[in-house]
Every structure is written in structure tokens, then in C-alpha cells.
Specification:
It is a single chain. The protein is built from 14 helices and 11 strands. By secondary structure, the chain is of the alpha/beta class. α6 (about 200-210) links the parallel β6 (about 195) and β7. The protein is globular. Mean pLDDT is about 90; it is low at about 1-5 and about 10-45. The structure holds D-xylonic acid. The site of D-xylonic acid (TK8) has 12 residues, from loops.
């Protein structure tokens, strides 16, 4: 009887083991076949990353800027439109250097894209300074028309000679003046104030003409310079003044709207030349579409900025027509001063286009 029980229990155990093994086997084969199924599309798409191209984009402004929102749109359009063939990586806050340094990197082919103001582009082509002339564009619609028209295109194309593919004009915007010393209502109030400008001869000459003591400096050094009071003031669009928290180190803002700063969204010519025609079209279209979006975001934001800056404790000074005219008059000779460097014909062409 004992022996019989032992045999029975052995048989039972064996049956159990066999069925367990079988069960395991079948449950293993289940996910295996599922794995194979899910593997198939993965293998297909793995052929795409094999030629995946990384596009690094560097800017000076932070992630809150309308410019960064535009770059997110560009990323979405290029990555989506290329089925993941491109990966667009964004680097804000001058992480990859200031505008001048990043343009240099584009020329050498060590960075794919950047989006500087036109002011520092003057170092590559002096004709670009035409857009830096004081009190040039009466409103954004005229700016869009000139920049997106034949003159704007001609200047974009000129960058190829410097190893840069100019793709589209985006908007930095009308620039206003801030300082930490006093309310500025006239050029006379600017006397003795040390104002940071971009690295551009027209900007320096304009501020000298307005009576200030201008000093050029890369954007990345600006906040600290204001904080440490090595400079008294600076000038930038209200969006930048607010979103970069300049109100923490500046008290007064005067709505001079003295320059209109376009951005140029650009690519390394070296990288561009290696792309297929199809990919070039995708990137060109995305640069324009993201630019239209960026301009829209920038203009929507701009409308709220005066109030935001007041709420943040700044004294916001609006100028009367007369007061503003005094700034215009102070800079009236700047254009003729730069006639030779920029080119008489380019200035005339832009002026004619503005009048249209
Ligand atoms: C950002 C700059 C900046 C510009 C300046 O890289 O330097 O003041 O207005 O926004 O392009």
C-alpha cells in the first residue's frame, strides 16, 4: 500500500512537472510570437535612424521667449514632416555661445542652426545694417513686407558667400530703452548714461547721436553687467525685458521704439548643401511657417508687456509724438553717415519699398 502511494505520488508529481513545463513553454511562445510581431515595425523604422540627422539650434534668449516657441514649432514640423529622419535639438540661453560665436560655428559646420538679430550679421555683410537704421519701419506690417520681399531675399542669399544659408526672417521686434538711474524722456536725459548696445556700428552711432555713452556687449553678459552696474542701461524689445527678468535690475523703461530688430533664422551652408532637394524644401518651408507663428506669438505677447512690466515694478514712460520726434531728430544723420558702408542703392531701395 505504501509502495503504491509512493508510485502514485511520483506519477502525480511527474504529471504536474510535465504540464507545468508545457504551460511555461506555451506561455513563453506566446510573448515570443508577439515580440516578433512588434519587432517587425521596429526593424522597419530602425532603417530610418540609421541615417538620422541631428539639427542642433542655439539661441541667446531663454525658453520663455516667443523665439523659443517658434523653434518648438520648427522642431515639430521638421521631425513630423520627415518621419523622424531629423531630430531637432534646441539650446537656449547662449549655452552654445553668443550670436556672433554661433554664426561662426555655422560657418565652420560645427553647429547646424541659429537665429540672431540682424545687428551682429553686419560683421559678415555690412548691407544688413540697413535694417538697423534708427526709426526705419513705421509698423510691423511694413517690416514684414520689406523683409519678406525681394530686398530681404537678396540679403538672405548674400549670406551663402559667408557659409550661411539664410532661411527666413523672424521677429525680435521694436526695441525700447531701459536704465536703472532715471526716467528718460528726451535725448538730453540720456547724457552720461552708459548703455549696452549690440555689436553693431549703426547702433553705436545712433546712441552716440542720442547723447548716450554706448558700449557693445554680447547678450549673454548683459544681465550680470546690469546687476553689477558696470552699465546703466540697455535696449531690447519689451518681451525680452520682461521674460529675461531685466526688471529685477532695471527701474525705468522708455517706449522709444528706436530700432526694429529682425531675426534671421539660418543654417550652416555646409549642412544645407549635403541635404537632398526634398529635405531642403521641408526645412525651408518649416522655417517660414515657424517664423509666421513666431511673429504672431511675439505680437500677442507684446500687447501684454507694458502692464506686465508695470506690475513688476518698472516705471514705464510713453513718449508724446513731440518727445519721440526729438529722438528721431537726434539720429537723422545716421543713415547718410553709413551710406558708403551700407550702399546708397540698398538704402534707397529699402526706403522706396517702405514708402509703397
Ligand atoms: C539674442 C539676441 C538678443 C538681442 C540682443 O541672442 O543682443 O540684445 O536683442 O535678443 O539676439
Amino acid at each position: 500500500m505504501k509502495k503504491y502511494l509512493r508510485v502514485l505520488s511520483t506519477v502525480l508529481i511527474l504529471t504536474l512537472v510535465v504540464s507545468l513545463v508545457a504551460a511555461c513553454g506555451s506561455s513563453q511562445s506566446q510573448p515570443q510570437s508577439q515580440q516578433q510581431n512588434t519587432n517587425q515595425p521596429a526593424e522597419q523604422s530602425s532603417q530610418v535612424p540609421a541615417e538620422k540627422k541631428i539639427i542642433k539650434v542655439g539661441i541667446g534668449l531663454n525658453e520663455q521667449s516667443p523665439q523659443y516657441q517658434g523653434l518648438l514649432k520648427f522642431k515639430e514640423l521638421v521631425e513630423g514632416g520627415s518621419n523622424g529622419k531629423f531630430e531637432v535639438q534646441l539650446y537656449a540661453n547662449s549655452q552654445l555661445g553668443d550670436d556672433t560665436k554661433m554664426m561662426q560655428s555655422l560657418r565652420m559646420g560645427t553647429l547646424e542652426m541659429t537665429c540672431p538679430s540682424t545687428a551682429p550679421i553686419a560683421g559678415l555683410n555690412k548691407q544688413f545694417m540697413v535694417f538697423d537704421l534708427p526709426f526705419l519701419f513705421p509698423n510691423e506690417q511694413v517690416a514684414d513686407r520689406v523683409l519678406d520681399g525681394p530686398i530681404g531675399q537678396k540679403l538672405l542669399d548674400s549670406l551663402s558667400a559667408s557659409g550661411i544659408k539664410g532661411l527666413a526672417y523672424w521677429e525680435n521686434g521694436y526695441r525700447d530703452l531701459t536704465n536703472s538711474v532715471k526716467e528718460v524722456k528726451s535725448p538730453a536725459d540720456l547724457k552720461g548714461l552708459k548703455i549696452r548696445t549690440m555689436e553693431n556700428p549703426v547702433h553705436l552711432a545712433s546712441f552716440r547721436a542720442m547723447g548716450a555713452n554706448p558700449t557693445p556687449m554680447p547678450f549673454g553678459e548683459l544681465f550680470t553687467a546690469m546687476q553689477q552696474k558696470t552699465i546703466d542701461g540697455q535696449e531690447n524689445p519689451l518681451t525680452t525685458i520682461y521674460l529675461q527678468k531685466f526688471y529685477e535690475v532695471q527701474k525705468y523703461v522708455t517706449l522709444t521704439h528706436h530700432f526694429y530688430s529682425p531675426f534671421v533664422f539660418m543654417m550652416s551652408q555646409k549642412f544645407w548643401d549635403e541635404l537632398s532637394k526634398e529635405d531642403q524644401d521641408l526645412i525651408q518651408k518649416a522655417a517660414l511657417e515657424a517664423g509666421a507663428y513666431e511673429r504672431q506669438v511675439n505680437r500677442e505677447q507684446m500687447a501684454k508687456m507694458e502692464q506686465n512690466l508695470k506690475d513688476a515694478g518698472m516705471v514705464v514712460t510713453e513718449l508724446t509724438e513731440e518727445q519721440r520726434q526729438a529722438f528721431v531728430d537726434a539720429t537723422k544723420d545716421v543713415a547718410s553717415q553709413f551710406e558708403n558702408e551700407i550702399g546708397k542703392d540698398i538704402i534707397a531701395e529699402v526706403m522706396a519699398e517702405i514708402q509703397k
